[in-house]
Amino acid sequence: MDILEEIEHKNRSIIVTLPSKEHWEEYENELIKVKDYKNVLNFKVHNFPKGIKKGDKCYVVHDGIIKGWMEIVGFSEKEFDCTTTNKKWKGKFIERSGPFHYLTEKIPMKGFQGFKYFNMEEYKINNQL
Prior knowledge:
alpha+beta, six-stranded mixed β-sheet, 45% strand, globular
């Protein structure tokens, strides 16, 4: 990877939305379960993000605010039963684990489905934040 690709990749990440029907306090319980990298949080997608790899950031939006980010630890196609909801899941998943890095600023963003490619610095500049 040349230096320009390396610089550009350093700022690449994705962002996902936690549905507003999910209570943030309950989600924080899930974050506690994965903070030591022994478990993962799965985010179902139709396709894996291109150019994103293990170690990159996955930001989370909830109730119109970017809450923070987690490390992406894998991408898998699998079938499993959720240990929290007991719901059966099958498909492609972005796996996140490790400590959740809360943002100190309240940065607004409208929720959406799926994932988006994201660069925090560009987002702040483009939205005059």
